[in-house]
Design goal:
The complex is a heterotetramer, with two copies of chain A (147 residues) and two copies of chain B (84 residues).
Chain A lengths: L1 E6 L5 H9 L5 E8 L8 E6 L3 H16 L4 E7 L1 E4 L3 E9 L2 H18 L2 E7 L2 E4 L4 H8 L5
Helix pairs in contact in A: 2-3, 3-4
Chain B lengths: L1 E5 L1 H7 L3 E4 L8 H8 L4 H7 L6 E4 L2 E3 L10 E5 L6
Parallel strand pairs in B: 1-5
Antiparallel strand pairs in B: 1-2, 3-4, 3-5
GO cellular component, one term (chains B, D): molybdopterin adenylyltransferase complex
Keywords (chains B, D): Nucleotide-binding
GO molecular function, one term (chains B, D): nucleotide binding
């Protein structure tokens, strides 16, 4: 069962875990990306390409479900303004095999960083700057191609 | 007519999120569209001066800048993505 | 920051995530093991070696913190009777680097299966049986020795 | 005097969770302790008949059955662990 959400509402980690547990299997892996307060950042803003984001996240979840034995996969990505410490993205996988759950979770967060049309902007008080893409995210995503 | 979408600092430089455009017939690839847009005014010049900083999607699929526009209806131009 | 708990109370996944987020870093990985309802199991019972469990879990968390760059690590293991769908164990790691968080999480759950003195007993109505150790858990734990 | 702890089905077969025992001087290793315990009654015979099914800890550290008891105060005997 695949669940994808692009939402302004805060992540509800307990609810996402409960929904994944409905699949009845033995293990749930998750990764949550959080807003860091580095360099005096006060607010993070996430812009998306509406329409394309949901479709790309669904495709990533389907690819993970083809590659690993998953009973369920969830991707929730927030958009709009968020505070330091808030969750930006939640990726969760449920599987009878813990290695499958953990690897699929790593795959999803790595690919999401390069394959989903979101853009981060950091605010420090009244000043803002668009976050630059990182080369290490490209190589993290590519390692799944060579396997 | 093409629907062109701009995101992040490209949107801010251009000063709009979306527009309908009919580029000249000489524009057949995404890169040529970017080059042509760069001549359309000050904000455009700023946004499209360095194609190396840009990424694109045709009809909501990522493409490299050298692909033909073909029969695409929606072109999006934006910086490399930074979600997650 | 290391947090270890062996408890009868249900896992509180949201609270564990909030505590890990206090570390201020960008990512939290977690793995939650759940009671499966296979083969008509109605209740799972967990027995521990009191005193030794807490120390072994703390040692595992310390080993993970030496091996990966972690801002925080949490291991919570339930004991006593639990119902189908309940969480048995929660492993959570916080890191500035998502690969570190995910790998350390995989390490902790793999090692915990072989290095912590817990025993599972499955109840099917009034009948019970002790769960047998699985060879695949030994090999999953050993893969971390050869790296 | 040794404190001996039993867990899981070993505890159930023996019929107790813990006891204080002074084994004979000929018992110097964990395996020898297991062999001696197997002679201490019906439940013990059942619990300790097959040392291959048993694991042990000395003073709360896992050990293999061939190690000497040494100056350990607490010996635990149990099946392979199945937590997590």
């Amino acid at each position: 069962m695949i669940r994808v959400s692009v939402q302004e509402a805060p992540l509800d980690i307990a609810a996402e875990h409960r929904a994944l547990a409905q699949s009845g299997v033995g293990g749930i892996a998750s990764f949550t990306g959080l807003v860091r307060g580095d360099d005096g950042v006060t607010t993070l803003e996430l812009e998306q390409y509406p329409g394309m984001t949901g479709r790309m996240l669904t495709r990533l979840a389907e690819q993970a479900a083809e590659r690993w034995s998953l009973a369920a996969a969830t991707i929730v990505h927030r958009v709009g303004p968020m505070a330091v410490g808030d969750g930006i993205v939640f990726v969760g996988t449920a599987s009878a095999h813990r290695a499958d759950a953990l690897e699929a979770c790593a795959y999803l967060i790595d690919r999401l960083k390069t394959d989903a049309p979101f853009w981060k902007r950091e605010w420090q008080g009244g000043e803002s700057r668009w976050v630059e893409a990182r080369a290490c995210d490209d190589s993290a995503a590519e390692r799944w191609d060579t396997k | 007519m093409l629907t062109i979408l701009y995101f992040a600092w490209v949107r801010e430089a251009v000063g709009k999120a979306q527009e309908e455009i009919a580029p000249p017939p000489s524009v057949t690839t995404v890169a040529e569209l970017v080059g042509w847009l760069a001549t359309q005014g000050e904000g455009y010049a700023e946004a499209f001066a360095d194609p190396g900083r840009l990424r694109a999607a045709l009809d909501q699929e990522f493409v490299s800048l050298d692909v033909p526009l073909g029969s695409a209806r929606e072109v999006a131009l934006f910086p490399p993505v930074t979600g997650g």
